[in-house]
Amino acid sequence: MTWDAIILGAGGAGLLAAATAGQAGARVLLLDHADKAGKKILISGGGRCNFTNTGCEASCFLSENPHFAKSALSRYTQWDFLALIESYGIAWHEKTLGQLFCDGSARQVVAMLLEECAKGKVDVRLSTQISEIAHHDGLFHVAGERGRNLVIATGGPSIPKMGATGIAYDIARQFGVPVVTPRPALVPLTLGETDRYFKDISGVAVPAIASVEGAQFEEAALFTHRGLSGPSILQISSYWSPGQPIWLNLLPDAHAVLKEAKAQMPKAHMKAALAEHVPKRLAEALHNLLGITKELANVPDAALEAAANRLTHLQFHPTGTEGYAKAEVTAGGIDTGALSSKTMEVKAVPGLFAIGEAIDVTGWLGGYNFQWAWSSAVAAGTEI
Ligand code: FDA
């Protein structure tokens, strides 16, 4: 038999695309090499799946073409996905910054998507290897099956130990579709000798304003034994390029804090003044970095000003990232210039589609990446 669509990858994007097409009457085959569907959904959001964000809009995504995501995001919105969640009676809550999570378990989201696939009579085949893909007589041939349409929904190579691969890029290149160089994103950064003062404070977390050229996020930062992590760092990692510095503002009101400390506790040292506002171990690291050893009363105002400036623009020199092994997503991917923003179809290869993380659209931390999976899936699933 000839399938109307063969969808490669039973992650969030593949499942919803299959369900959408199937429920519209298409005969759909969904293939995955994993033994379970939606494995990344299951581990997402600490097992509770941060399935969307109420503030989702195209400006929250990185892409060589920042306008590409607009069409799909506006036609299947966060509210549409939330309505689906509610129609299954899945209880949810907003955690922070518009991030919506299941009250119960991410398993409910996978069960919902599989139920949607069942409603669309989708044939879901797991533990199936995808080797060669052939294209002739207007049909796509894969894993001994043939279909009129082929949807690449195999994600990116982040977290290879869960079965993630870069097969999407191989398939794209096979069909002459360019690929924007993939890179780990939403990933911890590593520090080297230049930032040695922070080497021994692994586990310290603080609210911070993290910035890199072109982006700034205000959320927690975490010092790790290899460098920096935490939401604000993961966010700026997507914008970071090797060789660039990053900045942390660990004490936005440092000027007032130090001035007041000099007046109120003149006999104290910098460490004690800082420890009133940041964790003790961090205060000590900052004290060593600033190198001000005198009692505050004996520190000239200009030196305190300079110290405050440094605390609000603390420069770090990341040596790299923790790589795909720790990256929540992959930035870059199938070049959106080759795709229709309305349908996700490859313009030069009718019947070939690409959706989800496989393509060069990468969201911020906080439910944006799943929303892209849902929106791009519905765009393609509706077209098939
Ligand atoms: P996804 O990677 O989910 O699915 C691809 C599918 O293709 C997989 O089932 C895989 O097995 C299959 N596949 C890959 N290679 C194959 C091959 N060679 N042959 C056959 N099948 C193959 N996002 C968010 O919005 N909120 C959150 O809470 C989180 N949390 C989170 C936690 C962690 C630990 C990670 C790693 C990631 C997140 N994310 C997230 C990101 C989110 O999981 C991700 O963006 C989406 O799962 C992407 O969905 P896709 O369907 O595009 O790819």
What does this structure look like?
By secondary structure, this protein is of the alpha+beta class. The chain contains twelve helices and 21 strands. The chain has helices spanning 12-23, 39-43, 69-75, 78-87, 107-119, 167-174, 231-237, 254-264, 270-275, 280-290, 301-312, 368-383; strands spanning 2-8, 28-31, 50-53, 61-62, 92-94, 99-102, 123-125, 133-136, 139-142, 145-152, 179-185, 189-190, 205-212, 215-223, 227-229, 246-249, 314-316, 320-321, 329-334, 352-354, 362-363. Strands 1, 2, 7, 8, 9, 10 and 20 form a seven-stranded mixed sheet that branches. Helix 1 packs parallel to helix 5, helix 1 (12-23) packs parallel to helix 12 and helix 3 packs across helix 12. The radius of gyration is 24 Å and the shape is elongated. The protein binds dihydroflavine-adenine dinucleotide. Dihydroflavine-adenine dinucleotide (FDA) binds next to helix 1, helix 2 and helix 12. It is an enzyme of class 1 (oxidoreductase). Residues 183-329 form the RsdA/BaiN/AoA(So)-like insert domain. InterPro entries: BaiN-like, BaiN-like_dom_sf, FAD/NAD-bd_sf, RsdA/BaiN/AoA(So)-like_dom, RsdA/BaiN/AoA(So)_Rossmann.
